[in-house]
Amino acid sequence: MRALDRFRFGNAAAKVDLVLDGPIPWADARIAQAPTVHLGGTRAEIAAAEAMVARGRHPEHPYVLLAQPDGFDVGRNPAGMNAVWSYTHVPRGSTIDVTERVLAQLERFAPGVRDRVVAARCTTGAELGEYNANYVGGDISAGAVVLRQLLARPVLSTEPWRTPAKGIYLASSATPPGPGVHGLSGWHAARSALRHEFGIDAGAVSLA
Questions:
Q1: Are the beta carbons of 39 and 63 closer than 8 angstroms?
Q2: Could you tell me the residue ranges of all domains in the chain?
Q3: DSSP 73
Q4: 28-48: pLDDT as tens digits
């Protein structure tokens, strides 16, 4: 319990969903070919925005991660509509609606996009935390991603996926190798459970 008390959560995400009446009018048409886009300007601009978040402030020109699935999976949208999914970093527990800031950043790289907005919805950092208790304060990484916590996630252990409580294993981003679309936290937890609960060496099991 003392080790868990030392675990620290990171900043939050605030999600902004948009419905457009057409594709995003990127100033550089090549960007339309990317399913995921990172908006932030120069490296210095992104660093400045992230530093503001770390100080508990909301940057006017935030770093934004945006997904535009319409060009890759047309079945996701009704005819004539385009879904856009995005998020930006905010201080943990934030209740600020960042829709305007995200739209302004998007307009910077896609002039005229505001005219295509049919609907917009912001999910604040605090609301993300309410939606999923694992996102403490809106921290979708389930713990600050800093050097110490890449090694001690959530505690320093040769098998951090296994808890002291019998039969309870951790499979979230709060365990190594941390956040990302890789599924490795669950894979390691499953291997640990097979070994300790059922005496099965997962390394000897064929998945074919």
A1: yes
A2: 12-131, 146-204
A3: -
A4: 999 999 999 999 999 999 999
